## 1
Amino acid sequence: MELKEAIQKRASVRLFTDEKVPFEDIKEMITRASLAPSINNSQPWKFIAITNRELIKNMSSVVQNKVEQIFPHGNLKANILVQNKVAKFSTFFMDAPLVIAVIMTPYEAAVDDLLSGTALTHDDINKMRNYPNIQSIGAAIENLLLTSVDLGYGACWLSGLLIARDELEKLLDVRPPLSLAAFVAVGKPKESVRQREKKSLEDIFEIRE
Ligand SMILES: Cc1cc2nc3c(=O)[nH]c(=O)nc-3n(C[C@H](O)[C@H](O)[C@H](O)COP(=O)(O)O)c2cc1C
């Protein structure tokens, strides 16, 4: 598939068939994700491909519990609807045949060598540079999403379930200095994939000559 076609076809898919994703395809997705640019070529990521139904179910339960805990609806009808919506968008991955956990690993920046004798820390510089480690992970995830389209799958980038980050890190045995950055749900789309409306070029683009 042409790159342009993959970019144009990509849309978030949240309903999947039961068809399993073969190991070779998972490997291809992660391989192409790993080719993304990253700060100082640090490649500050790891990927856990989760296909175990029991584990996926447990993950969705901890997220569901957390949604109910931190966004109480107080028995108000409108709030109940919102809570249901938040829960739905944070737990629909439970029916995906594949959930990929994207883990952030520590990185060393070239400027770190210049920090001794200054009041600045690695974290200060990371913040000043607008979190290049997180930006790098975003690039890897986009590669993953486009690869899933190229291989005939649908996928959805997920950050909603990180409201239960501590519980999920425990469940997946992700320990410091590693941390969970995001998830991606992948599978064969159950229904035709619909592209969402995007802003017009005039709204988002200007050229300064
Ligand atoms: C950083 C990030 C986090 C996201 N988290 C979620 C999520 O938790 N749940 C969800 O259903 N969709 C999530 N999405 C998907 C967006 O809702 C989706 O990309 C957006 O609505 C545009 O639709 P499209 O992907 O079909 O173009 C996330 C997307 C991004 C980029």
Note: The chain has one domain: 3-190.
## 2
Amino acid sequence: MAQHSSAQDSEFAQAFRHQVLAWYDLHARRLPWRETHDPYRIWLSEIMLQQTRVAAVIAHYEEFLRRFPTLQKLASARESSVLAAWSGLGYYRRARMLHAAAKVIVKERDGTFPNSAKELQHLPGIGRYTSAAIASIAFREPVAVVDGNVERVLQRVSGRNLSQSQLWTCAQAMLDSSRPGDFNQAVMELGATVCTPRNPGCLTCPVVNVCAARGELQITGKAAPQQKRTIHYTLHQQDGKVCLVRRAKDATLMPDMWELPQISPASSQNNGSRTRIPDVRLLFTLRHSITVTDYTVRVWRLPASPDLAGKWFRAERLPQVALTGLTRKILRKAKILPLKTPSESKPV
Ligand code: SF4
């Protein structure tokens, strides 16, 4: 693209727009948030989709909307209920910001959703990408988005390793201003389903004739290697209740949420004494991954200690409790929580 004259650039952008939109019209995945122009629903989907796979979001999106069908319902909810509905999606800061922003809209804007990217950026948890996505999809504002998928497509199509500011300029220049929301989603969809990080599907790509790289561009930057860790939890059950502890309010990850008591490897082996206690039993092991760490999680049964600093919850109440994703996974494996909620059982 850099070697072209401006007339050629414009021709190139037109061809790209036309081809990517024609492809999107035929091949777009049917997703619940694409069936609406309601800014609340589009905003919710954009927040959920940050760092979470589409299939996982679909199940949680519908359940969340069942609990909080409107902005007003979300704004008036207790934070613990919002976190409970978010449980399983991870990155709970997103839920807290969503809740805080809903309160701002209701209290300070009389419930009127901001309708431009600029105004949206004043809300908690909404940055440049999210504001542009909501404004273009819900309000048809001609603003381009750049996320990881758009970045990869633009780098490859242009045949250059563009800087962040060049990427935003390039995306804006390529934007179809008559269909900005569709265009933004089309480029993201192309990156997610065809121009994938490894082995891009150039043979079936709708923009192959205008692509400089055709899969050959070496994108700079390496993914961080995964780390491995083993962690231990104890599962105490009594009279249909489970003992949970609350994470600190100022914890970096998942503050204020409930989890099983974590124990040291020594406790799991002999409960801290030299004599092996017969009641100590490994219940099961599972794997759990968070960003760059792969955890091996061992869940133990230990005798309940009188100074156990936790709170007992009845099993039926657990779906309403703000549990960490890992705790939910453990309780499902232990058959204390049902394997899947009804919405999660739907085919994707
Ligand atoms: S031709 Fe290949 S590299 Fe170029 S945009 Fe399409 S899938 Fe990506």
Note: The longest strand covers residues 281-290.
